[in-house]
TrEMBL record:
InterPro entries from the UniProt entry: Alkaline_phosphatase_core_sf, DUF1501, TAT_signal
A Pfam short name: DUF1501
Protein name: DUF1501 domain-containing protein
Native organism: Stieleria maiorica
UniProt-listed PANTHER family: BLL7424 PROTEIN, DUF1501 DOMAIN-CONTAINING PROTEIN
Top-level lineage group: Bacteria
SUPFAM superfamilies named in the record: Alkaline phosphatase-like (SSF53649)
Length: 454
């Protein structure tokens, strides 16, 4: 009779007693071996659509629903049998054979701050509160967990995030390492990759300061630190010191500087991605994973959006100039339909798509009913996430929403489950525990969606 794999939790339930003649250390080793995971993806590109795209107007259209529910746009066929998408996404439709659509993402957080934290961490916030504040008691970013458990050894940063710090009034939590320590923060930059003079200050030395001189300054600082014993009693100082060391290693690395040099790309390639901040950010993401960065987070916008018509995120509440429902819209859907297909094509052409997981998602979806402002409000109960490449099935739909895309009808998926699936595809066991600042063990993920894995 086959023995089922052991996980750490089941092993600990055994206590100090032997099981099948094994001692506790051997049991733990057996459990670790039984749950070892072969990576399907080397890297993740996490495209976060801050503000909440509408599932009914993108990837889960309900053309047979009442007029008050169905999209003003028509669905069109895609390259995947049985999958339709919005008519404003014609190029994306041609690449759906690469994608898995999870149409039953669900939670209960209706405020951007709480829902955003949930989406960026895979852990439920303590409350549904628009005033949720960043705190070391809250969970770290995905990339920080990856850096903690499976850091790069190739000279490249494990995690990079850009070109915004997202907020809705206050800064949304889960954009950094939180209680894991500053040493695991993503490399964050806020410069615009679409700027003609784009250059990362972190990778540029001040005028007149050579690398040798910088290293001598660092040696002097180490001596002062040792004399004051600063690093022996301050975890925070150690974190800053590690961060400083990483910055210096990047300053002296040709590989890192080259990865961030967008000017090395052909003009035709840059044009394909689109001369927008988001378009050039997606091109940068391809360059970073190609150079060995493991987790890249690209934020669509710094703000949720709202009334503005030419910037901001996906929070299209209507008013008098709603973006989502104007055929002449040149912003969200057209930008998406240029950048996402181009990114998938570029990764495929370079042989990177099979080893790079692309995640396209927001913090929630939109209400089934179109309101009096010809818009949709916040709706976390059912929304869609797109996955492509990196070990997932192509042309596949996981889960089924009800007739109005208002609730999951089959296979609901919580953010914890998506987190588990991302970690699993990277070869990280989603039952792994990390420890908060009170030394409490926290499991990093929920239930892996094995059905979406190729």
């Amino acid at each position: 009779m086959a023995i089922p794999p052991l996980n750490r939790r089941s092993v600990l339930r055994v206590g100090g007693a032997g099981m099948l003649g094994l001692t506790m250390p051997k049991l733990l080793r057996a459990a670790e071996q039984a749950t070892s995971i072969k990576p399907r993806a080397k890297s993740v590109i996490f495209l976060f659509q801050w503000g909440g795209p509408s599932q009914l107007d993108t990837f889960d259209m309900k053309p047979d629903a009442p007029e008050s529910v169905r999209s003003p746009y028509r669905p069109i066929a895609s390259s995947a049998d049985g999958i339709q998408v919005c008519e404003l996404l014609p190029e994306t439709a041609k690449r759906m054979h690469h994608a898995t659509l999870i149409r039953t993402m669900t939670h209960t957080m209706k405020n951007h701050a709480s829902a955003g934290y949930y989406a960026l961490s895979g852990h439920e916030p303590p409350s549904d509160d628009q005033r949720l504040r960043d705190s070391l008691d809250l969970y770290p970013a995905y990339g920080s967990v990856v850096d903690h458990l499976s850091p790069n050894r190739n000279g490249m940063p494990t995690s990079v995030a850009y070109p915004h710090v997202i907020r809705d009034g206050s800064i949304v939590p889960a954009q950094h390492a939180s209680f894991l320590g500053k040493r695991h923060d993503p490399l964050l930059f806020l410069e615009d990759p679409n700027d003609r003079n784009f250059k990362l200050p972190e990778l540029s030395l001040p005028h007149g300061l050579s690398v040798d001189r910088l290293q001598r300054r660092r040696e002097m600082q180490r001596l002062v630190d040792a004399q004051t014993r600063l690093l022996e009693y301050s975890d925070q100082a150690r974190g800053f010191d590690d961060y400083y060391e990483r910055a210096i290693s990047m300053l002296t690395s040709d590989r890192v500087r080259k990865a961030f040099d967008l000017s090395a790309e052909k003009e035709s390639v840059r044009d394909r991605y689109g001369r927008t901040t988001y378009g050039q950010s997606c091109l940068m993401a391809r360059r970073l994973v190609e150079s060995g960065v493991k987790f890249v987070t690209v934020y669509f916008s710094a703000s949720i959006g709202g009334r503005r018509v030419n910037d901001g995120g996906w929070d299209t509440h209507g008013f008098d100039n709603t973006r989502m429902y104007k055929i002449v819209d040149k912003y969200q859907l057209p930008i998406t339909d240029q950048t996402l297909p181009t990114l998938l094509d570029d990764l495929e052409e370079r042989g990177l798509l099979d080893e790079t997981l692309v995640v396209w998602m927001g913090e929630f979806g939109r209400t089934p009913n179109i309101n009096k402002n010809l818009s949709r409000d916040h709706w976390p109960q059912c929304y869609t996430t797109l996955l492509a490449g990196g070990g997932v099935k192509g042309g596949y739909v996981y889960g089924k929403s009800d007739q109005h895309a208002s609730r999951p009808a089959e296979n609901p998926v919580k953010p914890e489950d998506l987190a588990a699936t991302i970690y699993y595809l990277l070869g990280i066991n989603p039952t792994t525990e990390i420890y908060d600042r009170n030394n409490r063990p926290l499991i990093i993920g929920g239930n892996t969606l094995h059905d979406v894995i190729a």
